[in-house]
Amino acid sequence: MMHQSVILAILVSLCLQAVYGYPSGPPVGSVKGLCEAMDPTGHGPSKATGDPPYVISVSSSSYKANANITVSIKVTGDSEHFEGLFVQARRQDASKGSTTEALGTFSDQPTDTQLLHCGNAKNNAWGHKDKKTKTEKTITWTAPDDQGPLVFVATIVKGPKEMYWMDVKSSELTFDAGEKKLHVNTKWDDFKQRLYYQRKVANQP
């Protein structure tokens, strides 16, 4: 009897997830391929139409290794809101690697959101933790080394569960290689040129 009760409880739980989705956040640890597809499990086909009423804003148009960038999800209208979100930073250039790999590290998340682990890395994705309505959420993202152009990609659920938008994107971030190495080379070239002329003058009769 107890064994049957456990099975029944599991079946009820699965049915509720199918009906209501996952209000406690994207189930990246239990749903295979979710990190790559970013498809909201248990929500069914989206009934959302038109452009998403959300923007992903970033504090910089470029990144460099270990630099912190502020990332915000915001509504674009006074009457808009969202309940769920799933956010990653991804490559735009396939020659640098997979364009579905979550890159960088998120931190300082709001209390009603959570850090998620995709693949073998930790805290490389960001999601909701409850289904309370939200209008803006902000987090810190620490950049990796050069991965080519990057964008932040999100799936955002407005609610009810069938009202969601996928592939919401930020503006593109380019890698900032800096000019330190160029400056060093330039100074060295100037030194060699001065030394050459000094020797040339010294050798004149």
Got a strand count? 11
Q: End-to-end distance, in Å?
A: 111 Å
Fraction in helix: 10-25%
Report the average pLDDT across residues: 85
The low-confidence runs, each spanning 5 or more residues with pLDDT under 50, are: 6-21
SSE class? alpha+beta
CATH homologous superfamily grouping: Reeler domain
Sketch the topology as an H/E string, one letter per element.
HHEEEEEEEEEEEH
Q: What number of domains? A: 1
What is the correct CATH architecture?
A: Sandwich
CATH class: Mainly Beta
Indicate the CATH topology. Immunoglobulin-like
Total number of helical segments? 3
- What is the alpha-carbon Rg in Å? 25 Å
Which term fits the overall shape? elongated
How much strand content do the residues show? Answer: 25-35%
Largest sheet, order of strands side by side?
6-7-4-9-10
User: Largest beta sheet, briefly?
Assistant: 5 strands, antiparallel
Provide a compact summary of the structure:
With 205 residues, the chain is an alpha+beta fold. It has helices at 2-20, 34-37, 180-202, and strands at 54-58, 62-63, 68-75, 84-91, 105-107, 113-116, 125-128, 136-142, 150-157, 164-169, 174-175.
Task: Walk me through this protein's architecture.
The chain is elongated. Strand 9 (150-157) and strand 10 form a beta hairpin. The chain has a single domain, classed as Reeler domain (Immunoglobulin-like, Sandwich). The chain has helices spanning 2-20, 34-37, 180-202; strands spanning 54-58, 62-63, 68-75, 84-91, 105-107, 113-116, 125-128, 136-142, 150-157, 164-169, 174-175. The protein has a five-stranded antiparallel beta sheet with strand order 6-7-4-9-10, with no helix packed on it. It has a four-stranded antiparallel beta sheet with strand order 1-3-8-5, with no helix packed on it. It has 205 residues and is α+β, with helices and mostly antiparallel strands.
